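Work Package 3 committed the consortium to producing structural models of liganded targets before the mid-term review. Because experimental data for this complex are still outstanding, the team generated a predictive model from sequence and the ligand definition alone, so that downstream docking and mutagenesis planning could proceed in parallel. The input record is reproduced below exactly as it was submitted to the modelling pipeline, together with the SMILES string for 2-amino-acrylic acid.
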Amino acid sequence: MKKMIETTRAPGAIGPYVQGIDLGKMIFTSGQIPVNPQNGEIPADVADQARMSLENVKAIITAAGLEVGSIVKTTVFITDLNDFATINQVYQQFFDDHHATYPTRSCVQVARLPKDVKLEIEAIAVRGDSL
Ligand SMILES: C=C(N)C(=O)O
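The resulting structure, written out as C-alpha cells with the ligand in place, is given here.
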C-alpha cells in the first residue's frame, strides 16, 4: 500500500508533492533542498547546504522507521560542478558517520534549483529483508 511520509523534522513541500512515499519494501524521498526545518533558513556555504540536505533526507527515512544504511540510491543535483569535491567530502562523511555503505548515486549539474540553493538530494531506501 502507498503511504505518505510526513515529518516536521524535514522541510515541508514547497509545491505539489509529498516529502516521501512508503511502498512497504521501498521508500522514496522527494528531492531535499537545504532548508532548515526548524527555522526555514538556508545555509550560505555549500558544505553546510550538503549537510542540511542529507539531514533532511535522513529525517524522512527515519520517519519511515528506517536508517541511513537502508538507502540504496541517491540522486544529487548541483548547480556548479566546481563544488563536486566539497559535496563529496560531506557526503562521504555523512555515510561514514552512520556506518552505512555508500548507496548507488547519480550526480548531475543543473541550471537552477528551487530557492536558488546549490544542491538538492533525493533518495530511495529499502526495508528489511530486501537489504
Ligand atoms: C524541492 C523539490 N523537491 C521540488 O520543488 O520538487
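Reviewers should note the following from the model. The first helix runs from residue 46 to 63. These observations will guide the Year 2 experiments.
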